[in-house]
Predict the structure of nitric oxide dioxygenase.
Amino acid sequence: MLSSTSATTVRATLPVVGAAIGDITARFYDRLFEAHPELLRDLFNRGNQAAGTQRQALAGSIAAFAGYVVEHPDERPDALLARIAHKHAALGIRPEQYQVVHTHLFAAIVEVLGEAVTPDVAAAWDEVYWLMANALIALETRLYDGDTDVFRTWTVRDRVQETEDVVAFEVAPNTGPAPAFEPGQFVSVQVELPDGARQIRQYSLTGGDAGSLRFSVKRDGEVSRHLHEHAHPGTALTLGRPFGHVVLDGEDRPLVLASAGIGITPMVGMLEHLVAAGSPREVLVLHADRSLDAHAHRLHVGDLVGKLDRAELHVWYQDTVGDEDAHAGLLDLAAAGVAVPANAVAYLCGPVPFMRAARTQLLAAGLPAADIRYESFGPDLGLD
């Protein structure tokens, strides 16, 4: 809990800090990478750093956490913390790294806000930081479950060219069985790039068993391009254990699986699980894409839906040439006459504009916000 004294100070200074948080996070990353260039080279996503999205996500998470603990002093924003903790665990983040972040973040705060950072203000925001950091450390410790060695060597068993831009990989561990995973989770893949950087990206699992795991990669970003060009059967890859908190629940309520583009991948994993379990759940599958040719896992998803007794599939293409059964344009449930099942739980994955539009339509259809869950492939910038 945030102490009452600190809560008063944070509440009073939150507008000032919030207004400057973009400048603070920018200066923080500059300081961090100047002191620890290996973090940009081998841990942080260089593409997200260049685009500024990682800075936006950090700023948003700090502001959201601070605002929440001020307004709800007896609670924690567990959904926010769980999302961050799973991303951190997938990268192998260690507790001691939080002190490194603290050092450069608070130096950046002082640099940007200057004399406004009195001892009382510094102490209050220090308390906020360590409340968040220690909560994340505790969550990540439980996720590691005593094994902080997240990465090990795997070998590509097979690759299939799903579309011009998407390749599906099947990989097998070099030693021991493949780890168990929950439908909707992802794995981290680390590759060494030509400049020596060891960059990491996450990919949703589309399936797997004790002998292998499957994931698909869209040619977008330096790691994904590297996999397209260099990962072939027999190639060794460094993979992390599966993580991710947006997973298929074990309830019997109706499901809505809404995706766009490569966001279809976690839905494939969920459908695989439902078919294997012989699930009687009502399932509404919604997918939007550029065209039939760009639609990865199209035939496989159609086959999986056909194996479920109470499943229904609707597809939207911006270019419907070659598939007269597809709805034209962007996802539009009302125009297509698609009825959303009452009491459903929805899972979204795809570009942020798509997820925002889908969420708005599902809310209008009567689904509570708490029952609409989403997975973000990049830094989580939120849907509100």
